[in-house]
Amino acid sequence: MTAPLMIQLAGKRCVVIGGGRIAARKIRFLLEEGADVTVISRECSKDLQPLRQQCHFLQKDLTKDHVHTIKSLLPDACFLAVVATNNRELNDHLSDTLTQHIPLINVVDNQEQSNFFFPAYIKQGLLKIAISTSGASPILAKKIKRHLQQEFGPEYKNYVKNLQDERTWAQKTFRTEEERKAYLEKITPFPLASEHEEN
Q1: What residue stretches are annotated with the Siroheme synthase central domain (predicted)?
Q2: Which of 93, 120, 165, 198 pairs with 17 at a CA distance of 20 to 30 A?
Q3: Sequence spans of domains, the chain
């Protein structure tokens, strides 16, 4: 059974093992959220190449026989690991070893070996909406994402930032929680008219 959580990744040390297309997608996500990312891979694919300078890149060829050496390659206080090689057997062996050292592990081709998942999500500035089918149908999750992207367009980026500023002002200005809540309710219309509707 999975439960939805939002995790603060800024400054957290994370490791991604693998350098292919899927690994690059996970690396990009982690970097966008401010994580300190170490990549362990034999090769740097064309998908990973644009991200290489933003990571700590360790060029290392890992095989099943070398899994026991993985601990020496991990950053200190590593918080999260993504295992994304193109070898499922190797991924499973790596997961078994990493669980002894890292709290959060995602094995991209094995949900049973993972204790967290990357949901489909949309992001408009501070607004983030995650979609998960608990692994039942990634295709449906993507379709729901596309639908929500039409409902929550770019207009929400400035809107949510303005609400953050208003909330900060209200916390300093109003004496009681009831006054703050009444003011914030008044200035928070929903839904917004989309840019498409406005045009």
Answers
A1: 125-150
A2: 120
A3: 13-118, 119-199
Q: What are phi and psi of 174, to 5 degrees?
A: -90, 145
Domain 13-118 in CATH 3.40.50.720? The answer is yes
Between the alpha carbon of residue 70 and those of residues 58, 74, 183, the distances in Å are 12, 7, 54
Question: Is the distance from CB of 26 to CB of 48 less than 8 angstroms?
Answer: no
> How many whole angstroms from its chain centre is CA 76?
21
Q: How far apart are CA 134 and CA 64, in angstroms?
A: 29
Geometric angle at alpha carbon 70, from 65 and 71, rounded to 5° = 135
**How many residues are there in the chain?**
199
For residue range 33-86, list pLDDT tens digits in order.
999 999 999 888 899 999 999 999 999 888 777 787 888 899 999 999 999 998
